[in-house]
Amino acid sequence: MKIALIGASGTIGRAVAQELGQRHEIIAVGKTQGQYQVDITRSDSIRELFERVGKVDAIISTAGTLHFGPLAEMTADQFRIGLHDKLLGQVDLVLIGQHYLNQGGSITLTSGIVSDEPIRFGANASAVNSAIDGFVRGAAVELRNARINSVSPTVLRESWEGYGPYFAGFEAAPAQRVALAYSRSVEGAQTGRTYRVW
């Protein structure tokens, strides 16, 4: 398969590229790195990406920025960071990318554990990740001749040093194990699913 991997230079993206790259052609896409660059907050940038890449068999997104901070001090502009970037950016990848999928292709988005297990300072992340999983369920009903799923990972072992204080009592998962969920989404047969890696 020809797979467009958006967020390929991140921790999850690198693990996904290593896992699926053993069997498929990976097109590495990043904001500033990779074979191609894209800004998922801009529709014109996404369209330009797919015009250059052409038809693909799968689209994977491991991209997106969130805001972490205390609710008592959070502003609407800070909350919009996650809405505009991780949520709408990935939704736009689907809205545009669906037209560049080969018959029987798939799209895989990334949410996160705090959609089900909220944490202190994570209201933006909980809202955004829940919305991504809900969008996947709704889109699966209408997406023709293609599948769509999301992967909801716990905090990564490789990111524990930076994010560990937010996730007291959580068990971290290695990126390599998280990458298997993306393999299941791309190479499997299910649609409208959220694969939780906890």
Overview of this protein structure:
The chain is an alpha/beta fold and about 200 residues long. The chain is about 40% helix and about 20% strand. It contains 6 helices and 7 strands, in the order βαββαβαβαβααβ. Strands 3-2-1-4-5-6-7 form a 7-stranded parallel beta sheet, with helices on both faces. Strand 5, helix 4 and strand 6 form a beta-alpha-beta unit. Helix 2 runs parallel beside helix 3 (about 75-95) and helix 3 runs parallel beside helix 4 (about 125-140). The radius of gyration is 16 Å and the shape is globular.
Summarize the structure.
The protein is an alpha/beta fold. The chain has helices spanning 11-20, 43-53, 76-97, 123-142, 160-163, 175-187; strands spanning 2-6, 25-30, 36-37, 56-61, 101-110, 146-153, 194-197.
| Spatial shape | globular
How would you sum up the major sheet?
7 strands, parallel
The span between the termini is 28 Å
The number of helical runs is 6
Strand content: 15-25%
Radius of gyration: 16 Å
Class by alpha and beta content: alpha/beta
Give helix and strand order, one letter per element, not per position: EHEEHEHEHEHHE
Number of strands: 7
Helix percentage range: 40-55%
Q: Largest sheet, order of strands side by side? A: 3-2-1-4-5-6-7
Mean pLDDT rating: 97
Ranges where pLDDT stays below 50 over 5 or more residues in a row are: none
Question: What topology emerges from the helices and strands here?
Answer:
Elements lengths: L1 E5 L4 H10 L4 E6 L5 E2 L5 H11 L2 E6 L14 H22 L3 E10 L12 H20 L3 E8 L6 H4 L11 H13 L6 E4 L1
Helix pairs in contact: 1-6, 2-3, 3-4
